[in-house]
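Human: We require from you a protein record containing the residue sequence and its fold in C-alpha cell form, and nothing else.

Assistant:
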Amino acid sequence: MTAKKIKMAICYDFDGTLAPGNMQEYGFTEKVGYANPKDFWKKAADIAKEQHADGILAYMQLMIEESKSKHVPFTREDFKKYGKGIKLFKGVEEWFDRISAYAADKDIELKHFIISSGLKEMIEGSSIAEKFEKIYASCFMYDADGAAQWPAVALNYTTKTQFLYRINKGVLDETDNKTINEYTPLEKRDIPFENMVYIGDGETDIPCMKMVKISGGHSIAVYPPHVDGAKEKIKHLITDDRVNIIAAADYSENAEIDLYLKAVINKIAADNVLKAFER
C-alpha cells in the first residue's frame, strides 16, 4: 500500500537560532553610534520599562529615533543591505536543500518558515531568504520615499504563536483575520501540528516551543557552540518540558540537529504509512 505524500513544516526563530547575536548588530547599531550593542538593547529595555511598553515595539521605535537623530538612512533598502552582512551558524547555508531532499525521498513535502521578533526586511536581505515559504517577522510602515516611519508588525513571545496556526491551517496571508478564525476540522488542516518542528533559542520562543511539543510535534532549543555556559543556560527548557532536545546551533551534516530532524522525518513517514493502512 502506498502512503500519500504528506506535508511537514520546520519553523525557525532567526536571531540566535540561525545566526549569532541580533541582526541589528550587523551594521545598524554601530552606524547610530553604539560601540557596544549591549548599550542599545539596555536603552530599549529601559524605555519599555519606563513606558510600560512592549519590548519589541520599544526597540523598533528606538531604531527610528536614533536613525533620525544621527541622520542615518533608514529605508527598506538599507535594511536589506544590513541583512546581506548577517553571518550564519555553521551549516545553515546548505541545510535547507539537504534536509528538504531527505524529506522528499520519504515522500514528504517539507516547507521552511521564519517566525522572528527580528526585522523581516533584514531577513529578506540575508543569503537564505529564498529558502523560506514565508517570513513572519517584525516590520515597519514606510512613506512614499521608502523610509521607515512606524512599526507595522511586532512579534513578541505570545504573538508568535498565531503564525503556527496560520501554517497549520494553510492561511499564510497575515492580513487574513477572517479565515484563520474559522473552524477547520483537524483532518482538513494543511500541515498537522504533529508534522511541525520549531527551532528557537530564547525566551520569546518558549510559547511556540511548548505549543508545538504538546500538540505532538517536536521542538528544539539551540545554543551557540563554543560559548562557555551557553548549554547550561537553556537546560531548564528540558526539565520544564518545553522542548524535546537541546543542541548546539550547528546545522552541518551528521551534527545533532541534522540527525534528530532526520529521525523526526523518518517517524512522520512511518506514521503516515500506518495511517494509510488504518484508513
Summary: The mean pLDDT is 94.
